[in-house]
Design a protein that fits this description.
This protein has 765 residues and is an alpha/beta fold. Helices cover 42% and strands 11% of the residues. Strand 14 and strand 15 form a beta hairpin. Its cofactor is Zn(2+).
Length: 765
Amino acid sequence: MGVSVASLGFPRIGLRRELKTALESYWSGRSELDALLSTASTLRRVNWTSQKEHGADIVPSNDFSLYDHVLDISAMLGAVPEAYGWKGGTVDPVTYFAMARGSQGCCAHGVTAGEMTKWFDTNYHYLVPDLTADQTFRLSTTKVVDEYREAKALGFQTRPVLLGPVTYLLLAKIRGDQEVSPLGLLERVLPVYQQVLEQLVAEGADWVQFDEPGLALDLDDAARAAFRTAYATLTAAVPSIKIMLTPYFGALDDNLDTALSLPVHGLHLDLVRAPEQLADVLGKVRPELLLSLGVVDGRNVWRADLSRLLNGLEPIFRARGNLVLAPSCSLLHVPIDLARETDLDPEIGQWLAFAVQKIAELRTLATALEQGRDAVRDVLEASDRAASLRRSSPRIHDLAVQTRLMAVTPEQSCRNAPFARRRDEQQAWLDLPLFPTTTIGSFPQTPEIRAARAANARGELPEADYTAFLREQTSKAVRWQEEVGLDALVHGEFERNDMVQYFGEQLSGFVFTKHAWVQSYGSRYVRPPIIFGDVSRPHPMTVEWWRYAQSLTERPMKGMLTGPVTILNWSFVRDDQPRAATCRQIALAIRDEVQDLEAAGAAMIQIDEAALREGLPLRRRDWKTYLDWAVESFRLTASGVADRTQIHTHMCYSEFNDIIVAIAAMDADVISIETARSKMELLDAFVQDAYPAEIGPGVYDIHSPRVPTVEEMVALLRAARERLEDRQIWVNPDCGLKTRKWPEVEPAIANMVEAARLLRAEAAA
């Protein structure tokens, strides 16, 4: 009998974002590959050491990635699209990073990056496997075995982690033939997985963790059969290694019998997202199957209520004896160490736990189960005290916010007139050309801007000087936009640190960290706000910067806001009330800002809902509830304006066919979306449902350093014209340009404006 503590995966980025620094140095040519690989090796060693020191018995290897763990599997399988010029053998770093980021140079033939989308319902992005119906697979990297061997040499017996073969294929696309299921390639994929397992056994591995979050999805009989085939094949072929099957992000539900039937040795349960599934599992599970209980939240930052968890765990431990305690999922989605947040409000800080604290919480639970609660009495009392103080803190609840929310009427979520009438009024007022050009909002945050912000934060640059500097940057950006020929301008957002943090810092109910970074994709990290209490807007947030920017030009200047659903989904959200209630509170705060912008003279107001799709529940039965309150929240922000005020929104990578009815129900006048990587394929959903409003399909992939040519953009716009009416089409990049550099942005936007000019000439011919 015994209890083990397992980590399912750990943040890759480093306490001081060492991976970001090393990647960007390598990409820019300032350092060699050896320096990047050395940093990566150091981070892995630090991670293994830290997890062990904080109480993990089982630590993972191969949870580290230079860019993305799904891309790592594509590289392992040799699933490299022909365009990247790979000739076989080992997938080299040039090819790997070309798949991730695209390439302007000759080595990878100047190709675009692979399609990227959200990892289930998180804010992490993965590279979509790009396969063909006749795809062949062969072992093409040794990363899994290399990192296991590396850990073993340092004294760590790790449990290697691989994304399972079925989930990998469920995430894949078959290029050129959407009727062919990627699951049909399973028999070709399994021999490579088998080869990896055999190599791990040869190196001394005794367990392997197969992540199969696909088991939390709605699956058909073919997908369930694929799971049975996959694990029957692998366990029969390599019987000497034990498999921990690791679904997460939701309940197994109607996939439970499939999961329990698989010939694996352990099963993980996400009991944070789906605590209700435990009873069903305990009633059906075979005695010899090792259960891994995900009882600590791997996706949020709140401290666990340890006594409450023990109340549920103790009878299970008495009945089964052997247990593994783990986070609900990989800790990739939370910051690394709360101890670094020395400036955090201490009252709120005591309510939080980051990755290393979560492992320590699991160690406390394991000790209490094995030795009794008295063995960790002080820790349990501290946990009880923190939970009680959080429940009773007067900083959590604001009666004025709650009263206002209760008074909201359905009329407050409706525009005055239908879109067709609004469009006529807006065109008469704005007088825009066919295929109007604009950008999504932000311009490059240069080293000079970041340095000035840091100096201001340290008190070294006076506020007046900092404001003058930002005004100068804004003025330059406005002049450049006029010179390049954009039709609808933005002020560039130089005063903003982040599209969510900037607003959260000015809203009540939020708290912020200094070092709590998490990975969004590649070297793109974010510091999500923490929503701990009721939300309201004490004062206007953007009006003065919009007013200044508009004073510099006669062209329309968009007011730029982040929408309530995105603020919610890109924050660590309080877990003591429904997410819908928190979202509506944010919506009322943003509604106040929209009305103040309109009163100041804004003719266009963009309310970004980049994260609407990623909040969609994994099970279809739950979609309507989420979409109803998400759409209502957006409409609540946007519906208090006059008909002639044009409301824009923006959405990031999404499977729009899943939510097209909800997008239409948002009743925005213009939506901009990311379509460059999908070659306008995502527009098909808007065509099938006859989307009535205007659309800006992205023609410039801002996640890649490539500068697309005029011809590429014209080709994309022609593809858009095949799907949409000319009057519907706007011309814009995929997303904001904050992370790019001006030498990339200037020619790319100039090419975009020229592409729009050529399209106007074609339309007039």
